[in-house]
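Hey, does this match?
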Amino acid sequence: MRHAFGYAVLVRIHIRTRVETLHLFPYGVVPYDLDVSPDGKLLSASVAEVNGDQFLRVWELQRVVAGDITPKSQHSFGQSVPESFVFSRDGRFLYGSSYYTGVSNIFRYEVDTGEVEAVSNTDSDFFRPFRSRRPPAGADLHVAGFVPA
């Protein structure tokens, strides 16, 4: 992302040659916390709208490169900020935190269905999820995979 004069620009960097503009977002629309799925086919971002609404959006990278910025899926978090969402190893889910329920919790977002589920229930603490190198059998993100921020 590049930012200038209130505009956010999604760019692709071609190593040692050039920076390619993929999309200029409208004034005041700010994508942040970008992540690319492990297979490289999907791009996710938290997006703040000029009116304060907050979204988690997922795009198909091939379509973005072709100029189509229509999200594959999205979830509105209202005025609550979605933070640090990252893809699961299989790319089916995004995990991240938000104050959406009145306390900071970790949420799982299913890309294909748009279903959101709180996977924690905490009164305090903030986390930045990341993919662990050695998750326990059957788990993608686990307590050892959360880092206090």
Summary: Residues 138-149 have pLDDT under 50 and may be disordered. The chain has one helix and 13 strands.
